Amino acid sequence: MTSKWHGTCDLRLYKRPKYNNRDINKTIHQAKCTAPLKLIKVFNDKKDGRCEIPILHSAGGIVGGDQLTINVNAEEDSSATCSSVAAQKVYGSKGRSKLNPEGSWANQKCLFQIEKNSDFEWIPQELIIYQGGLFEQNMTVKLDPSSSFLCVDLVRLGRTSAGEQLGNGVWRSSLEIYRGNTQGKQYEFSDRFELSGEALKSIHGLANQPVFGSLTWITPKEINQKDLSDLLAKCRQQRAGLEGFMTCSLLENGISARYTGSSTQSARFWFYRIWRLTRILRKLGMPEYMRIWPMQENPTTNSECPL
């Protein structure tokens, strides 16, 4: 019987203090991980001091019963982008064991606390769920009014290149983003859904398309509403030349974008273009593909980026 993992990654991000009366504008990190999660080389050589953090899942993939927990505390004035080193595989669970024909769920929990004047981006590579895979992810984000948070989810349901579909597998997702105040929680965004069964085929679901993606960006509360409306219009223009069905809508303090289709590349390109626009609005440095990502195409021109 395959062993089950409970991997953890606890990550602290903070602004480097002054050294010899010099203000060093870098975000640095402290981390503690347990297998199968681990950090590889972290980069913080950007001009704006942003920290790039690659998390590696060192096992061959996720199996039923595995649990992953990622805790991030982004302290005051920190700035970081966190990603996964490679696409993540979730192996089939349903119908694979006579002892447990209903299969076992794998779960990933992300708990993010983003403090004053901080900017945190969670942009993992795609998740591939094999036929009969059962996977649930839960993300909870506590955000200071002066800070921003961006996250991307991209999932392929079934190994379509091998002619496989999700079948009786299930993908569940829960995302809650809130700001704390004296009256409790003020929710900025709450999103829960399940992709399985009829939802995979229905025109009100995925309409037999294997790729689903979402991007959510919550801004600092002082962002001008006209600027957000202008951003929404620009985001919708970024769909040109890409295949798939793409929607984008305005939140009270941010935007929400969705993708359904067959092309992981088109989804990545569109989300990259939106990501770039959010950086422009916040007057932050332009995003670059992280050095750990294998994809080197330029999403604004559909050509290769120079290495």
Give the topology.
Elements: E1 6-15, E2 27-34, E3 37-39, E4 51-57, E5 67-74, E6 79-84, E7 88-90, E8 106-114, E9 119-122, E10 127-129, E11 134-143, E12 148-157, E13 170-181, E14 184-195, E15 211-218, H1 225-237, E16 245-251, E17 254-261, H2 264-281, E18 297-298, E19 303-304
Parallel strand pairs: 1-5, 4-6, 5-8, 6-9, 7-10, 8-11, 9-12, 10-12, 11-13
Antiparallel strand pairs: 1-2, 3-4, 12-15, 13-14, 15-17, 16-17, 18-19
**Uncertain spans:** 302-307
SSE topology string: EEEEEEEEEEEEEEEHEEHEE
Mean pLDDT: 89
Counting DSSP E segments of at least 2 residues, the number of strands comes to 19
Total separate domains: 1
Described by its quaternary structure, the protein is single chain
- Helicity, as a percent range: 10-25%
Shape from CA axes? Answer: globular
Beta-strand content estimate? 35-45%
- Distance between termini? 44 Å
Structural class: mainly beta
